[in-house]
Amino acid sequence: MASIAVCPGSFDPITFGHLDIISRGAKVFDQVYVSILNNSSKKPLFTVEERIQLIREVTKDIPNVKVDSFHGLLVDYAKEIGANAIIRGLRAVSDFEYEMQLTSMNRFLNHEIETFYIMTNNQYSFLSSSIVKEVAQYSGNISELVPPIVEQALQAKFKS
User: For binding substrate, which residues are annotated in this chain's numbering (predicted)?
Assistant: First the structure.
């Protein structure tokens, strides 16, 4: 049986921190779905379609990564695609309490799906999409935080 994992998130936009988790997860699982939660209560900078295109571009050299989006419960989506695992990144101890709550609820909803945590590379432990957007909005240097195509997309968004 193939091991299939979901790496969920908003990825608004995808950062080198996300890519670190995705690429490391892809070494462990046969297939990794990078899946964008289509959350109507949030006001993202990029549309779901734009985020899918950006993620596809920056993961094109990782052959076992697929990019998708979903709405609703993560465990329902995971079951739908045949995933038996969820990959979550941890940056700091402050992430742990929230992640533990999510994992406990997911386990309550479907005890067959395991959650695996990957500690981010230390150089990305401070990094979040929100911080990247804020720095980009004020024309700060984000070249070491996101891939070039993402940097260009952010610059285009903030010029309009």
Answer: 10, 42, 74, 88
The catalytic residue among 27, 42, 43, 159 is 42
129 included as an active-site residue: yes
Give 42: exposed, middle or buried? Use CB within 10 Å, 0-12, 13-18, 19+.
exposed
- Kindly report the pTM of this predicted structure: 0.93
Q: With contact defined as beta carbons under 8 Å apart, do 113 and 84 qualify?
A: yes
**C-alpha 15 chain-centroid distance:** 9
- In this structure, how many other beta carbons lie within 10 angstroms of the beta carbon of residue 96? 12
